[in-house]
């Protein structure tokens, strides 16, 4: 009975994640591609959001969908090669969500920074080298997970070492203690560096907003109030994304620390960790759609255009 309840909750959770995450990320990705094609350019922040939507989709495809399939009783989903590819893709893209969210907060920090020579220089260099920065982040994450392509195998009756991660549909056997520890240290260093950087950048953004708010305190003109500016709204969106990510990262880390303190981890705990580790991929595009001015304007324009075309078609047919 308990097993059935766990699988029901797991199915509800992951199918909801897919139902929300797939269409919302596709909307974000396709809208920014459309803007790029029409306007021939994208702001740095929107380019970063485009990459975030792409990575989110890959996380859902590589982890959300297999978990949902597993929850309805389908076993032996992948063979060895498919396990290697899916595990490699998920871990890289999961890492990229950290890096890209950090990059987004740093970019917003540069946008709001005071107009000094050093900040203007950094802002210009950041915008010019954004593709190379993205490539560098991909390279970091790819370099951390070569063991996925070597040691991950489908679940079967074979002997594994004690340094094995038992996943729902694959096993990741690190073979040696050194390999196991080295991989853990590399992941921990990456996670805490980028999460720490995004938190510091966000704290500086909050400080800049507070400082700006004190400067304009008492000014009655609505266009001078921070809450009314485009920059403030974009900043609020970035801070919300960072808050969501840090919260989910904290939950994930707490569950992980708990699993280190017990001899055997219940499947429900493992499911919860995977769910919270994937949830950002469904929540972040909702925030982007609700707060991004460019997306809302483009979607509204396309909807109005379709309504006009529909009205014109109906008028012609009535004649």
TrEMBL record:
<protein>
    <recommendedName>
        <fullName>Vomeronasal type-1 receptor</fullName>
    </recommendedName>
</protein>
<keyword id="KW-0297">G-protein coupled receptor</keyword>
<dbReference type="GO" id="GO:0019236">
    <property type="term" value="P:response to pheromone"/>
</dbReference>
<keyword id="KW-1133">Transmembrane helix</keyword>
<keyword id="KW-0807">Transducer</keyword>
<feature type="transmembrane region" description="Helical">
    <location>
        <begin position="89"/>
        <end position="113"/>
    </location>
</feature>
<dbReference type="InterPro" id="IPR004072">
    <property type="entry name" value="Vmron_rcpt_1"/>
</dbReference>
<feature type="domain" description="G-protein coupled receptors family 1 profile">
    <location>
        <begin position="24"/>
        <end position="288"/>
    </location>
</feature>
<keyword id="KW-0675">Receptor</keyword>
<feature type="transmembrane region" description="Helical">
    <location>
        <begin position="272"/>
        <end position="289"/>
    </location>
</feature>
<feature type="transmembrane region" description="Helical">
    <location>
        <begin position="192"/>
        <end position="210"/>
    </location>
</feature>
<dbReference type="GO" id="GO:0005886">
    <property type="term" value="C:plasma membrane"/>
</dbReference>
<keyword id="KW-0472">Membrane</keyword>
<comment type="similarity">
    <text>Belongs to the G-protein coupled receptor 1 family.</text>
</comment>
<keyword id="KW-0589">Pheromone response</keyword>
<feature type="transmembrane region" description="Helical">
    <location>
        <begin position="238"/>
        <end position="260"/>
    </location>
</feature>
<keyword id="KW-0812">Transmembrane</keyword>
<feature type="transmembrane region" description="Helical">
    <location>
        <begin position="12"/>
        <end position="35"/>
    </location>
</feature>
<dbReference type="InterPro" id="IPR017452">
    <property type="entry name" value="GPCR_Rhodpsn_7TM"/>
</dbReference>
<dbReference type="GO" id="GO:0016503">
    <property type="term" value="F:pheromone receptor activity"/>
</dbReference>
<dbReference type="Pfam" id="PF03402">
    <property type="entry name" value="V1R"/>
</dbReference>
<feature type="transmembrane region" description="Helical">
    <location>
        <begin position="47"/>
        <end position="69"/>
    </location>
</feature>
<keyword id="KW-1003">Cell membrane</keyword>
<feature type="transmembrane region" description="Helical">
    <location>
        <begin position="133"/>
        <end position="156"/>
    </location>
</feature>
């Amino acid at each position: 009975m308990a097993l059935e309840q766990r699988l029901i909750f797991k199915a509800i959770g992951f199918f909801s994640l897919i139902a929300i995450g797939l269409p919302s990320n596709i909307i974000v990705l396709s809208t920014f591609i459309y803007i790029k094609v029409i306007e021939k350019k994208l702001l740095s922040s929107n380019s970063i959001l485009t990459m975030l939507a792409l990575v989110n989709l890959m996380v859902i495809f590589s982890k959300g969908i297999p978990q949902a399939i597993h929850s309805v009783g389908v076993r032996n989903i992948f063979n060895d090669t498919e396990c290697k590819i899916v595990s490699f893709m998920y871990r890289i893209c999961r890492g990229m969500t950290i890096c890209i969210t950090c990059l987004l907060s740093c970019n917003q920090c540069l946008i709001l920074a005071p107009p000094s020579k050093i900040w203007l220089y950094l802002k210009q260099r950041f915008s010019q080298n954004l593709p190379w920065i993205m490539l560098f982040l991909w390279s970091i994450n790819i370099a951390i997970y070569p063991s996925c392509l070597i040691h991950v195998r489908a679940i079967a009756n074979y002997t594994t070492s004690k340094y094995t991660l038992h996943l729902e549909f694959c096993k990741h056997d690190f073979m040696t203690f050194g390999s196991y520890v080295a991989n853990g240290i590399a992941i921990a260093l990456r996670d805490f560096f980028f999460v720490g950087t995004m938190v510091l950048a966000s704290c500086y953004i909050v400080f800049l907003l507070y400082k700006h708010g004190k400067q304009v305190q008492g000014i009655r003109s609505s266009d001078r109030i921070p809450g009314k500016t485009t920059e403030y709204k974009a900043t609020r969106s970035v801070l919300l994304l960072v808050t969501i990510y840090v919260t989910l990262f904290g939950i994930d880390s707490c569950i992980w620390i708990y699993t280190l303190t017990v001899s055997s981890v219940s499947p429900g705990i493992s499911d919860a960790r995977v769910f919270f580790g994937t949830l950002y991929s469904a929540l972040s595009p909702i925030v982007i759609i609700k707060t991004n001015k460019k997306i809302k304007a483009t979607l509204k324009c396309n909807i109005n255009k379709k309504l006009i075309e529909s009205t014109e078609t109906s008028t012609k047919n009535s004649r």
